[in-house]
Specification:
Helix 1 packs across helix 3 (59-83), helix 2 (35-51) crosses helix 3 (59-83) and helix 7 packs across helix 8. The protein is globular, with a radius of gyration of 17 Å. It folds into two domains: 10-99, Orthogonal Bundle (Rna Polymerase Sigma Factor, Chain: A); 102-168, Winged helix-like DNA-binding domain superfamily/Winged helix DNA-binding domain (Arc Repressor Mutant, subunit A, Orthogonal Bundle), CATH 1.10.10. The chain contains eight helices and no strands. It is an all-alpha fold.
Length: 168
């Protein structure tokens, strides 16, 4: 039996998974603190993304939305684990639950991030938000450490200019 040709939508999803899957995995790993659970969660997050694929069409909101879906999914897993008596999940949940729900800096960060391609966004979030090392981000995204450094440097330079904090 011949395989069906891949639709443009399927190709786009596969491309997004290759590009952003490692960043989603890293987010899940950070919250769940378990590699196998993070792998499972990453796949489940992408299944959820497929249900609302149209939201991925707007590049400026795609990455923040993907991170929000991943975070919410992991928080739900942690809550379920806590309800079923898993002690370690409770500590992780409390740290995240204390974060402020919304603030102007978050909107500014989203606006700045939206000016960059998805790979640069993933690099910036990985290094600046998730605290990953350049080598770690490079491995997760399948690029060189030098590329991470170069893209992050350009991101920081342009971001400073965008928010008016560039060097005089």
């Amino acid at each position: 039996m011949l395989a069906e040709p891949a639709s443009p939508e399927r190709e786009r999803i596969a491309s997004l998974y290759r590009e952003l899957g490692p960043a989603v995995y890293r987010r899940c790993l950070r919250l769940l603190k378990d590699r196998e659970a993070a792998r499972d969660a990453t796949q489940e997050v992408f299944v959820k993304l497929l249900r609302d694929i149209d939201r991925l069409a707007q590049r400026e909101t795609a990455l923040p939305w993907i991170y929000r879906v991943a975070t919410n999914h992991c928080l739900n897993l942690l809550r379920d684990a806590r309800r079923h008596g898993a002690d370690s999940a409770e500590d992780s949940l409390e740290v995240v639950a204390d974060a402020p729900p919304s603030f102007p800096e978050r909107r500014l960060a989203r606006e700045v991030l939206s000016r960059f391609d998805l790979q640069t966004q993933a690099i910036a979030v990985g290094v600046l938000v998730d605290g990953m090392e350049h080598e770690e981000v490079a491995g997760a995204l399948g690029i060189s450490r030098k590329t991470v450094h170069r893209k992050l440097s350009r991101f920081l330079e342009r971001a400073r200019d965008l928010i008016g904090g560039g060097k005089p």
